Structures are given as C-alpha cells and as structure tokens.
Amino acid sequence: MSAPVLNIAIAGASGRMGRMLIEAVVNAPDCRLSGALDRTDSPALGQDASAWLGQASGVAITADLRQGLAGADVLIDFTRPEGTLAHLAICRELGTKVVIGTTGFTPEQKAEVAAHAREIGVMMAPNMSVGVNVVLKLLDLAARSLSTGYDIEIVEAHHRHKVDAPSGTALAMGEVVAQALGRDLKSCAVYGREGVTGERDPSTIGFATVRGGDIVGDHTVLFAGIGERIEISHKSSSRVTYAQGSLRAARFLAANGPGLYGMDDVLGLK
Ligand SMILES: NC(=O)C1=CN([C@@H]2O[C@H](COP(=O)(O)OP(=O)(O)OC[C@H]3O[C@@H](n4cnc5c(N)ncnc54)[C@H](OP(=O)(O)O)[C@@H]3O)[C@@H](O)[C@H]2O)C=CC1
Ligand SMILES: O=C(O)C1=N[C@H](C(=O)O)C[C@H](O)C1
C-alpha cells in the first residue's frame, strides 16, 4: 500500500521562499499542494500558484485563510512575524500543523507561538538547512573547548531585501554559544560598534551584519585568541536547502503530536 499524500499549504506564496517551497512541493511525489496564501494586497492573488514554473497546480493564490488552509495537513510559513501569528491562530482552530521559517520574532511573539504549540504540532527554526543545524552542534563543542582566552564574534551577510537583523540564524548561533559558556545572550550581546568604544569586554559576544546584492546567507562565528583564530562558517548558495529542510519538517510533524519542535528534532540531532 502506498503512503498517504501529505497536503501542504504555503504562506507567503509569491515570496522568495514561498516560490521555492511551491516548486519543492509540486515536485515531491509524497506531497500535494493544497493551498497558497498571500496578503490581501498581493498582485499574485487569483493566479495559479505554480504558473511561474510553467506548470499549473490547479491551486489559486488566495488571501482567504480558511480557503487557503482547507484540506491542508501542514502549513509552511515563511512570511513576517505578524503574518505567521495570524496564520497560526487559524491553524490552531482547524488543527493544521505548522512549519515556521519566519524570523524576527520578539520574545513575546515567541511565547505566543509556544502557546499555540500546546494544541497543534509546530516546528520552528530560523534555518532549515542541514548544514546550519550541524554547525549549531559544532559551535556548542567549540565554545565549551574555547571558553577562556577567545573573543567571540558572529558575522552574517544576506541579500539587500532582508528586513531583520541580525539574522535569526546568527541569533541562534549566539544563543548556543552563550548557553555553552553559561552567559545570558540578552546581557552579553553587542550589536555593532561605532565611535570610541573602549577595549573589547571579553565577556561579550559581538554581532556584525552585512546586507547586499543577492547573498543567500553566510554565517561565520569567529573565536579569536592570541596567536590563532578559529572560524566556523556556513554559506548557502541556494534556497533549495531551506525548502527541502521544510519538507522534512512537514513530514516529521505529520508523524508527531502537538508540541513545539526544532530542526534538531527533525534531523535527530538532539
Ligand atoms: N528558516 C529558514 O530556513 C529561512 C527563513 N527565512 C525567513 O523567511 C521569511 C521570508 O523570507 P523571504 O521569502 O526572503 O521574504 P519575501 O519578502 O520574499 O516573502 C515574504 C512573503 O510573505 C508575505 N508577507 C509579508 N508580510 C506578511 C503578512 N503580514 N502576512 C502574510 N503574508 C505576509 C509577502 O507578501 P508581500 O510581498 O505582499 O509583502 C511575501 O509573499 C523571513 O523572515 C526570512 O528571514 C528565509 C530563508 C530561510
Ligand atoms: O532572510 C533570509 O534570506 C534568511 N533568513 C534566515 C535568517 O534570518 O537566519 C535564514 C537564512 O539565513 C536566510
């Protein structure tokens, strides 16, 4: 007997990630595109969600959340925090599971996500690539091994259209390092420097942000000591890796009950 097909709706359907996800879903033999959502003022409303691929899906992009979510087992959402939270509330009512790739949430918004996850399965990760999630594990080891005498700086670079900074991935890297060192990221993070800053405080974790062109996503964590420095880097050359990671997460949610999961659960990296 063949495995049941997973019905997936995509939010932010005409965005950079939305399009990648639609392509990945229509090409996955075990998935079906059941809906595509965009904002009420989007010029894409009413268009076939995969028309731009030269292959019709029969799914029209809609701003009507209930219509777009009808029949969906899982919603994959790469939009903005306000959009994700609005989508989550309806998904909770309908019992639809949610993969969240959106970044830029405040602590209060994250708490709202966690509250919804008490009722439905939610997988939330600032980076769906296998590589970044392995790097997060390497950073834990590096930070514990280089806990004294090394200054830690996190540098990230993204395309000119990115609206949040530092990236969700850079912040996740900072959290891993801070936790490994027993520091509180909120109180030790330094976001950019300017003017007469004084000497570097060794207990800080610095962040630097670069925005330009079409950079997909680069992250480097630098451990700078005396006489040596260690750099742990990840560079994305395509958004395909985020889309494939999201599909893995959707399959994981389909097989699991309510709860807030991370990519380490999906990839078995816990
Ligand atoms: N977790 C991961 O692996 C990754 C995460 N991301 C994150 O995903 C998010 C989207 O990135 P990207 O695709 O590049 O962004 P885009 O701006 O290209 O796409 C965002 C989409 O969401 C829509 N949107 C914006 N605001 C709302 C809202 N309030 N309600 C509903 N829909 C909304 C946009 O519509 P409109 O165009 O009309 O504004 C657009 O269709 C970002 O937070 C980014 O950081 C990105 C890549 C990987
Ligand atoms: O906006 C992007 O493009 C990306 N956002 C995510 C983040 O903020 O970490 C993941 C990836 O780096 C691409």
From TrEMBL:
Residue numbers binding NAD(+): 12-17, 38, 101-103, 125-128
Enzyme Commission designation: 1.17.1.8
Binding of (S)-2,3,4,5-tetrahydrodipicolinate, residues: 159, 168-169
PROSITE patterns, A to Z: DAPB
Enzyme class at the top of the EC tree: oxidoreductase
Subunit organization: Homotetramer.
Family in the record: Belongs to the DapB family.
Protein name: 4-hydroxy-tetrahydrodipicolinate reductase
Source organism: Roseateles asaccharophilus
Gene name, Swiss-Prot/TrEMBL: dapB
